[in-house]
Amino acid sequence: MPLPVLICDDSLLARKQVRKSLPESFDADILTAGNGVEALAILRSQEIGLVFLDLTMPELDGIGVLEAIKQDGLDCFVIVISADIQPEMQKRVTELGALAFIHKPVNPDKLIVILKHYGLI
Amino acid sequence: MSTIFSEEQRDCLQELINVAMGLASDKLARFLNTFVHLQVPAIELVNSAQIPAQFDAQYNSIEAALVSQGFLGSDGLRGEAIVLYQLDNAHRIAALLGYETDSASELEMLTDISSILTTTFLNGLAGQIDNQLSYSAPRVLSSRQNNVTAALIETACHWEMALKVDISYQLIDHSFNCDMLLLIPGEAVLNIQQILDRIVEEF
């Protein structure tokens, strides 16, 4: 069964970069969201197994999404993909439950290592 | 800007700039030993002749600094990066960095901050488009009241286009706002469009 995956980023280019970085062997149904509000609407209405989450976004940022996921007890893995690479930010998202933190622009090799590590591929 | 760039080109440029801003913020955060709250910078491409009037209201009645740094890369990518900021903002940063308050070290501090902001940002931008830039030494064009507009008129007239990047750095206990302008020759716009199209096509 394909894994339901959500790619959340306000940039179309960034969403495409993530999609293209996923290996062909990764069996996924991919949905996209352009900001945190859209992402939460999807996460609350259907089962999503994995979220690729940007941090700096309009409406609701990635930190807000992580807080809501934690508060609502939503059951999904989150991998943060962000241009905000400050160590303090990496610590914050990890504390909020994110599995991993990847710097933008996304490096496909690093992404595959993480997906393998968590048994997602 | 929508008349000059297609929506896809604009989205692409915005993302390249976001990544470059992330690198510059990280550098600034390490330099100041604090956390920098990163916001999505507003970008706009305008005719450089419009620049002095656009910043006149914002900077003419306060003490402001204007620091310029030239950059040169391959494929016709060249220009002048201008960082504009309020001096009282800069003084707070200087205090954090432990600079003395005399005017000689004020110049040193202004060039140091600008160099962190500009060089890291532009290197990050160039790296994403497989280009490499070299830089001239930063020059403080104006650091006192009333001559910011004059300095802008004098500088902007050498160029045709300007990419405005509105940057706001919020530190934990205070905020630091500055404007970055990338003054570029008209033909560079076509070059940038081609680069953006190539990246859009790639994904």
Under CATH, the topology of chain A can be stated as: Rossmann fold
For the termini of chain A, the CA-CA separation is 12 Å
Give the count of helical stretches of chain A: 5
N- to C-terminal separation of chain B?
23 Å
Form type of chain A? globular
Average pLDDT level of chain A: 96
What's the gyration radius of chain A in Å?
13 Å
What is the strand and helix layout of this fold?
The complex is a heterodimer of chains A (121) and B (203).
Chain A: E1 3-8, H1 12-21, E2 28-33, H2 36-45, E3 50-53, H3 62-72, E4 77-82, H4 87-95, E5 100-103, H5 108-117
Parallel strand pairs in A: 1-2, 1-3, 3-4, 4-5
Chain B: H1 7-32, E1 36-37, E2 42-47, H2 51-59, E3 64-72, E4 78-86, H3 87-97, H4 103-128, E5 134-135, E6 139-142, H5 148-156, E7 161-171, E8 175-184, H6 186-202
Antiparallel strand pairs in B: 1-7, 2-7, 3-4, 3-5, 3-6, 4-8, 7-8
Notes on the protein architecture:
The complex is a heterodimer of chains A (121) and B (203). Chain A has one domain: 3-Layer(aba) Sandwich (Rossmann fold). Chain A is globular. Helix content of chain A is 41%, strand content 21%. With 121 residues, chain A is an alpha/beta fold. In chain A, strand 1, helix 1 and strand 2 form a beta-alpha-beta unit. Chain A is built from 5 helices and 5 strands, in the order βαβαβαβαβα. Chain B is α+β, with helices and mostly antiparallel strands and 203 residues long. Chain B has one domain: CheC-like (Chemotaxis protein chec, 3-Layer(aba) Sandwich), CATH 3.40.1550. Chain B is 48% helix and 26% strand. In chain B, strands 1, 2, 3, 4, 5, 6, 7 and 8 form an 8-stranded antiparallel beta sheet that branches. In chain B, 42% of the residues are buried. The model of chain B has no long low-confidence stretch (mean pLDDT 85). Classes of the chains: A alpha/beta (121), B alpha+beta (203).
